[in-house]
Amino acid sequence: MVTQITKGIKISVSTSFEGTFFKNYKMHFAFGYEITIENQSKDSVQLTSRHWDIFDSLNHTEVVDGEGVIGKKPVIKPGESYTYNSGCLLASPMGAMKGYFNMINFTNTKKFRVFVPTFKLNAPFAIN
């Protein structure tokens, strides 16, 4: 598990390898990840959007931007946390992701960015 704190918001990420499958005559490697967003600040915040940089070992990078996470824009009160699960497909058995969440502080209405640390995506059979 990797963790990082930005402006009182703690991000924790754990990953899993979900398997392989063929699609359009190509092998794909499926990975899952669980992200917990813990509000350690004194203010209520809302996650409004996300940005991901997804890398694989074949030197391919995919950029994903979107509203909220898994169709939601959670409000997280002080001392509370929000956990969600998602996943991605890679063309190789190894890769990584990093990104950020755009948030808004309800106390002062300021927007800010919370960084998600780089986390590795590795199929067990590809690791020495």
UniProtKB/TrEMBL annotation:
Domain ApaG: 3-128
Cross-referenced Gene3D superfamilies: ApaG domain
A GO BP annotation: error-free translesion synthesis
Taxonomy, superkingdom: Bacteria
Signal peptide stretch: none
Record-linked NCBIfam families: PRK05461.1 (NF003967)
PANTHER family: F-BOX ONLY PROTEIN 3, POLYMERASE DELTA-INTERACTING PROTEIN 2
Record protein name field: ApaG protein
Organism: Pustulibacterium marinum
